[in-house]
Amino acid sequence: MSDCTFCKIVAGRLPSHRVLEDEHALAFLDIRPASPGHTLVVPRVHARDVWEISEFSHGKVADMVHRVAALLKTAVAPDGVNVKHNAGEAAGQDVLHYHVHVVPRWHGDGLRLTWNSSPASARELEKVLERVAAVR
Ligand code: AMP
Ligand code: ZN
Q1: Which residues neighbour 109 within 8 Å (Cβ) at sequence distance 6 or greater?
Q2: Which CATH number belongs to the domain containing residue 48 in this structure?
Q3: Considering the entire predicted model, what is its pTM?
């Protein structure tokens, strides 16, 4: 994808702060970090989101997320970490090349990546399972 920002970063046509790379994936620092060490992990082969990426490529990105989380744990000593992928505008996806956010967290850092929710009834959960079972 010639006009994709992350394809350009993968190809070295845009600058980036590379954390880790291998044959299948690349990890680089987010240019607008939510916290110090905020890293993005992307596949080298373009895919829009979790619905488009191949299971193989997704697995390779997941492997790198695992390695990046371990690296950041040692490098910046966070109290926790959020691992997050946004797919689609409704979920807040801005760059349309699959990427996983690895966001180090500290107690009291003030970041808000949570949502409001309330317990569902067993019937509600079962209804969802029925819909999944119908297409599985
Ligand atoms: P999302 O909203 O999940 O699509 O996240 C896109 C992320 O990409 C944002 O956190 C941006 O700060 C980040 N971003 C956009 N352009 C660049 C870039 N050239 N280098 C590094 N990170 C970028
Ligand atoms: Zn791309």
Answers
A1: 35
A2: 3.30.428.10
A3: 0.96
